[in-house]
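Worked example 2:
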Amino acid sequence: MEANPVIELFLALAIVILVAKAAGGAARRLHQPRVFGELLAGVILGPTLLDFLHWGVFQPENIHLVEEMIHTLAELGVLFLMFMVGLEVHLSELLAVGRVAVLGGILGAVIPVALVTPVVQAAGFSIEAALFAGVTLAATSVSISAQTLFELGLLRTKEGSALLASALIDDVVAILLVSFVVATTGSGESEGSASSLVLIVAQIVIYLVVAGLFAWFVLPRLMEQIKRYSSGVRTIAALSIAAALLFGWAAEALGGVAAITGAFIAGVGLSRTPHEIKDQIEEAAMNIAYAFLVPVFFVSVGLGTDLKEISTAALPLTGLMIVLAVVSKLIGVGGGARLGGFTNAEAFRVGVCMVSRGEVGLIIASLGLTAGAFSNGAFPLFPPLFLVVLLTTVLTPPMVRWAFRQKTQSPKPQITPSR
């Protein structure tokens, strides 16, 4: 009797979610971020070690379909993850350390691209692959450093506020950069034509302006009106989820940019809703995202990564990218913070806090993998990039503790960052 691939998907998802949650919980007990445990769970379940989809439980003819369905759910996880990032935008935090945030965030995203892109291209990869690698390492994962500072009682310090605000600017710039890369390298017919490039840039700008204005001014008022005539929590939740999906669709279909950009913009707009409505939106999105779709995304990254593919030929580039991943943030974010008025010590601490890559970096790398950008070279580029993200995730907490070793502050009650 032929097995139903949907039924086999149920089993695969159960294994993925259970292992991801167990690994995430173990990581937290070891003072590591949950994302590290979930990524490691994917590596363990994937072709690097167990290759669980090729166990006898799954029929060979259904494996490809199950993989495709997991990948589809993972893409939804990416969308909701960026929607959650947008919901956590707080203008007050940006304004409090505005100059530092803007300079540190922009330079912290641009410098990694400037340093990594030529190195990867010199290793024999296309400009598309090199740009994807650079933008992957332009992103940062604020949750890892923020959680470490929270545990030290230092999150609401000058450096902590700068970290939260700079990371937001950094993510926005990284998202815009990857959207530009996707739009300008995604179709062969547009490459090499100056007029086509101008049209692409104009399309991106028009979409960002129109979508941004609609999200900023219309979405909050729309939600308030709906709340007035319908007190149901589920209605608000359903419409906010629909907004994330529609903005994601419009980003690619109309704007020519990555769908995550649209979801992020929708989140930013809905972050301006009244506190009660925003809480309802966050709770609904968080339940869907963190209980189901986001673990599937992180594990799926591991499932698609075979670290055994990192050959000896890839080791020099991998090591160099790890060094550049650290140095580029210290130079970019630290230099921007110094220009913004921080002391050398304060700027250095903020730079260290921004070393960790994570969610956004993996999203960008996954886009490059889906586009086939990493396959044309002497060796597959995605596994080394994945290893860099993994190692910076592990290295950042002890680096942050070391950087703040001389800064003492009595622990105070604080709000645990959700991101």
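Confidence is low (pLDDT under 50) at residues 187-192, 408-419. The two ends are 46 Å apart (CA to CA).
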